[in-house]
Amino acid sequence: MERLQFTPRPDWQEKAKAVGFTWHHDNGLPYWDETAAYAFSLAEIENDIEAPTEELHDMCLDLVAEVVASEALMERVDIPAPMRDYVANSWRANAGSLYGRFDFAYDGKGPAKMYEYNADTPTSVFETAVFQWLWLEEQIASGVLPAHADQFNSLHEKLVSRFANLFPPLTQIHFSSDAEFVEDRQTVLFLEDLAVQADLKPRFVAINDIGIDSNGLFVDLEDRSITALFKLYPWEDMLRDDWAKHLPASGVRMLEPAWKAILSNKAILPLLWERHRGHPNLLESYFEDDPARSSLGRDYARKPFFSREGANVELVKQGVASEVQDGGYGQGRHILQALHSAPRFAGNHVIIGSWIVGDHAAGIGIREDAGPVTRNTSRFLPHFIR
């Protein structure tokens, strides 16, 4: 694994606009960054990233099966009591999942270490599946990269295939997000296009425009029944909304399914450690109220069960906590995880997001930041296989 300098394509912003990638800058600062790219060997990809991604995914599914059968474990992962049967029944009904993304620390010198599992909302799916692949194709076509260069990236085709496996042809699926937030809306537009390629019929409805009719069924603004719904809205919020009580009787097929509320939750980190202590891809982790946390000493990461983009994550060194970016997640329960600094390349902290689609590893996206915690401002860089 190596970080290499590249000359940005002079027209990359026009090309980004042409494919709908409009959030490539944030407040004037670059989010997409092609001044460098990460090079991997095929062995690094296959042995150190792809294989652990699928193994960790299997471990997570085993954990879900255990949690849904235990009221005590449902409590430990903070599933609201009124919604526990709904979550458990989605698992027992074998409700299919579309995707997930593991965040890894990896430097090519040792095993990838799992920081967390983003099992619900698809941050960076478009730039991973589309724009970094276009970058690769153009670098090969221009002779910057050799013709044999490749990329660990089958995310686009695997998502299309997965949609087709989950739904019969011509199924109508409603897609929902905050219609005013550009990144979310564009991400959902991309998923709608994938559904079209899978011979499905997507229809958008803003998340706050979903209604409930007199029969307790979900409807859009035109009073069309919502029978299948992709929602870019976290389960930890949805399960606590006032209208959550309507979910069990609604009959809506959800993407992601409700059992993903168990996995999109940092409470799985100590549970995985309990069951797979010493696993090379796991970091030692405990619930904050567990006396065993003392084995971490005075160096650890303190993470809320539910947080996004590094918000409210504290890095504690010798008992002193780092400055925290408050995203409003700090009031709930927390876990403690062994402090494991993200690898540094050219002064940047690097995180690898490894995607799973269905049950198969599907590619990676790379984020880097000058600071030790990956945030929504962290840059996305392309990669290639030598």
Describe the protein's architecture and organization.
By secondary structure, the protein is an alpha+beta fold. 29% of the residues lie in helices and 24% in strands. It has helices spanning 12-18, 42-67, 71-76, 84-92, 125-141, 155-166, 182-197, 235-238, 247-250, 260-263, 268-275; strands at 2-5, 25-26, 29-30, 36-40, 99-105, 113-118, 172-176, 201-204, 211-212, 218-219, 228-231, 253-255, 285-287, 300-304, 314-317, 320-321, 334-338, 344-345, 348-357, 360-369, 379-381, 383-385. Strands 5, 6, 18, 19, 20 and 21 form a six-stranded antiparallel β-sheet that branches. Strands 13-17-14-15-16 form a five-stranded antiparallel β-sheet. The longest helix has 26 residues, at 42-67. The chain is globular. The protein starts with a strand and ends with a strand.
Strand content is 15-25%
Number of strands: 22
Gap from first CA to last CA: 10 Å
The biggest beta sheet reads:
6 strands, antiparallel
Could you say which structural class the secondary elements and strand pairing correspond to? Answer: alpha+beta
Summarize model confidence as the mean pLDDT.
95
Q: What does the radius of gyration come to? A: 21 Å
Shape: globular
Uncertain runs: none
Helix content: 25-40%
Summed up, the helix count is: 11
